[in-house]
Design brief:
The chain is mostly helical. 75% of the residues lie in helices and 0% in strands. The longest helix is centred in the last third of the chain and has 32 residues.
C-alpha cells in the first residue's frame, strides 16, 4: 500500500518529466487526491456551521396571542379622544360665556339677546367647534354601540360613521333654512335653529365622559353606560320638544303641526340613521 509520503514524491517526480508526453500522463497522477479530502472536510464543516446557525434561530418560549382589534386596544382611539379633549377646551376658551348663557336662557324665549350677556364675537367659532366635537363624539359612541364586542374596530369604519353623521346634521341645517324661509319668521327660525344646535353641543359634552367609560370600563358595566347614554339622548330630545313648543305654540292646533314635525323630521330620521349605521358596518 502506498503511503502519503510516497504519493507526494510521485507527484513531485511527475512534474520533472519531459513535456513532450503530456498526453501519456494520466490526470489522476497530476492531481492531489488529498486536496479532495480537504475540500470534503471544509464542506462538512460549513454544513455543520449552517446547522448550528439554524438551531440558534429557533424561537424560544411560547408564541403569544395577538390582542383583538377592540376600541380599548387601538391606539388611534386614544389619540382621537385626546384630540377631542383639546378641541373641547379650545372651543370653551373661545367663548367662555357662551355655554353659561345657553344654559341660563334656554327656557326663555327672547327675540333679542340681553345687553348683560357675556357672549363675545367668538360665539360662532365656538359653536362651530362644539358641533364638530359633538359630531365626533356621537359618531364614536354610535360606532361602539353598533359594533359591540366584535373584533375589527377600524378607523375606516369610524370615518364612514363620522361622514354619515355630519351629512345628517348638515341636512338638518338645510331643512331648518328651507322650512324657516317658507313657513316661519326669520326670528323664530333663528331661535329654533340655535336652540337645536345648542342642545346638540351640550349633548356632545355630556356624552364625552360616557364615551370614555364605554370604551375603557370592563365588559360587565357596558350595559349601565349604554343605559345612561340612552337616558341622556332622551333628555336631549325632550329639551328640543320643550323649546319647539315654547317658540311655535300659539294655538292648540299648532301642537298637531309640532308633533307632525317631530315624527317626520326628528324621530324617523334618527331611526333611519341607526339603520344606515348598521348597513355600513355590515358592508364596509
Amino acid at each position: 500500500m502506498l503511503q502519503p509520503d510516497t504519493i507526494r514524491t510521485l507527484h513531485d517526480s511527475i512534474k520533472v518529466l519531459p513535456k513532450v508526453l503530456p498526453k501519456a500522463i494520466p490526470d489522476s497522477l497530476t492531481t492531489d487526491s488529498l486536496a479532495r479530502v480537504d475540500s470534503l472536510a471544509t464542506a462538512d464543516s460549513l454544513h455543520l456551521v449552517d446547522s448550528l446557525r439554524r438551531i440558534a434561530l429557533i424561537p424560544r418560549g411560547f408564541i403569544g396571542i395577538p390582542h383583538p382589534s377592540l376600541p380599548q386596544t387601538e391606539s388611534w382611539v386614544f389619540a382621537l379622544l385626546f384630540i377631542l379633549f383639546f378641541l373641547l377646551v379650545y372651543a370653551i376658551l373661545q367663548s367662555s360665556g357662551f355655554l353659561a348663557d345657553t344654559v341660563k336662557t334656554y327656557f326663555q324665549v327672547k327675540e333679542r339677546s340681553s345687553i348683560f350677556s357675556r357672549a363675545t364675537v367668538n360665539d360662532s367659532r365656538s359653536r362651530f367647534f362644539l358641533i364638530i366635537f359633538s359630531v365626533s363624539v356621537l359618531s364614536m359612541y354610535a360606532y361602539c354601540v353598533v359594533h359591540g364586542q366584535n373584533a375589527g374596530f377600524l378607523f375606516k369604519e369610524y370615518a364612514c360613521f363620522w361622514a354619515i353623521t355630519a351629512i345628517f346634521f348638515a341636512l338638518k341645517n338645510l331643512i331648518f333654512d328651507v322650512m324657516g324661509y317658507i313657513f316661519l319668521a326669520p326670528v323664530s327660525k333663528k331661535m329654533a335653529k340655535d336652540s337645536y344646535f345648542n342642545v346638540l353641543s351640550i349633548l356632545g359634552i355630556v356624552m364625552y365622559p360616557l364615551l370614555i367609560l364605554q370604551i375603557y370600563i370592563p365588559y360587565n358595566y357596558t350595559n349601565i353606560v349604554e343605559t345612561a347614554g340612552l337616558v341622556v339622548c332622551v333628555i336631549a330630545c325632550i329639551l328640543v320638544i320643550i323649546k319647539l313648543f315654547q317658540i311655535f305654540f300659539r294655538k292648540i292646533v299648532a301642537s298637531f303641526y309640532i308633533l307632525l314635525y317631530l315624527c317626520t323630521l326628528e324621530f324617523l330620521p334618527l331611526f333611519l340613521l341607526y339603520q344606515v349605521f348598521r348597513f355600513v358596518l355590515r358592508s364596509v
